[in-house]
């Protein structure tokens, strides 16, 4: 008597197992995306106390002659309290300020990173994180409205900004940086709430000596330099 045909062959079991894996994968992905959206919303709520515009750095060009630029910089928190001041000379004709810009949900946070010139490579520039680093917290965002959770978030962002600056190395990206021009280098993505960081390069060559200017950060991601 002929052997009865099996209801399920090995191929059928393979298709069922594959379908089950795809279903479970879609379910897990959906849960991850839902959790991601919840984390972004929670992050935005915690950081909503930050002002729309901050002026963390003010500077004055003291001199520009004989191939050397000398400038003085002051750092401030959100209340206007002075955090640090430094004065330095650099070889070159154009002084450039590099800031790391990191998205936080639908808004952005900016961190002044380093100074370099047309005669000094970015990797050999003057690092300035330490002027506003307070035990890992970026004091330029300090203010009375911050709670403990928001402070922890800012510590995480600051660490990511430092990592982005270290990762990028030479931020020149083969172009001539100028005011309003963003560098093309991108930081590692932490695959969490944060997105990729970019570098915003501001050329300080056109500013007059003896005049105080302020670096202005907007939560929209815009970076400007205005006369104070």
Plain-language structure description:
The chain is an alpha+beta fold. Helices cover 25% and strands 35% of the residues. The chain has helices at residues 10-46, 148-168, and strands at residues 53-65, 68-76, 82-91, 95-104, 107-117, 126-127, 133-134, 137-138, 181-183, 198-203, 212-218, 223-227. The termini are far apart.
Order of helices and strands: HEEEEEEEEHEEEE
Computed Rg: 25 Å
Average pLDDT for all residues? 74
| Stretches with pLDDT under 50, minimum 5 residues | 29-40, 169-193
Shape category: elongated
Number of helices: 2
Can you count the beta strands? 12
End-to-end gap: 99 Å
Strand residue content: 35-45%
* Largest beta-sheet details: 5 strands, antiparallel
Q: By helix and strand content, what is the structural category?
A: alpha+beta
Q: What is the percent of helical residues?
A: 25-40%
Strand order, main sheet: write it out.
3-2-1-11-12
Secondary-structure blueprint of this entry?
Blueprint: H1 10-46, E1 53-65, E2 68-76, E3 82-91, E4 95-104, E5 107-117, E6 126-127, E7 133-134, E8 137-138, H2 148-168, E9 181-183, E10 198-203, E11 212-218, E12 223-227
Antiparallel strand pairs: 1-2, 1-11, 2-3, 4-5, 4-10, 5-6, 7-8, 9-10, 11-12
Name the features.
228 residues, five-stranded antiparallel sheet, single chain, 12 strands, alpha+beta, 2 helices
């Amino acid at each position: 008597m002929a052997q009865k045909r099996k209801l399920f062959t090995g191929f059928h079991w393979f298709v069922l197992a594959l379908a089950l894996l795809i279903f479970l994968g879609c379910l897990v992905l959906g849960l991850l995306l839902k959790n991601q959206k919840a984390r972004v919303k929670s992050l935005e709520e915690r950081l909503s106390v930050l002002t729309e515009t901050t002026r963390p750095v003010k500077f004055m060009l003291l001199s520009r002659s004989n191939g050397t630029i000398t400038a003085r910089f002051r750092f401030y928190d959100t209340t206007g309290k002075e955090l640090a001041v430094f004065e330095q000379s650099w070889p070159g004709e154009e002084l450039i300020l590099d800031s790391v810009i990191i998205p936080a949900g639908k808004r952005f946070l900016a961190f002044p990173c380093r100074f370099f010139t047309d005669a000094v490579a970015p990797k050999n520039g003057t690092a300035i994180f330490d002027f506003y680093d307070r035990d890992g917290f970026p004091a330029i965002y300090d203010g009375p409205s911050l709670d403990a959770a928001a402070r922890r978030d800012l510590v995480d962002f600051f660490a990511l900004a430092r990592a982005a600056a270290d990762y990028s190395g030479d931020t020149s990206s083969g172009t001539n940086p100028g005011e309003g021009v963003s560098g093309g280098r991108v930081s590692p993505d932490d695959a969490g709430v944060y997105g990729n960081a970019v570098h915003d390069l501001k050329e300080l060559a056109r500013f007059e000596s003896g005049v105080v200017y302020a670096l202005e950060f907007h939560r929209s991601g815009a970076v400007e330099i205005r006369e104070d």
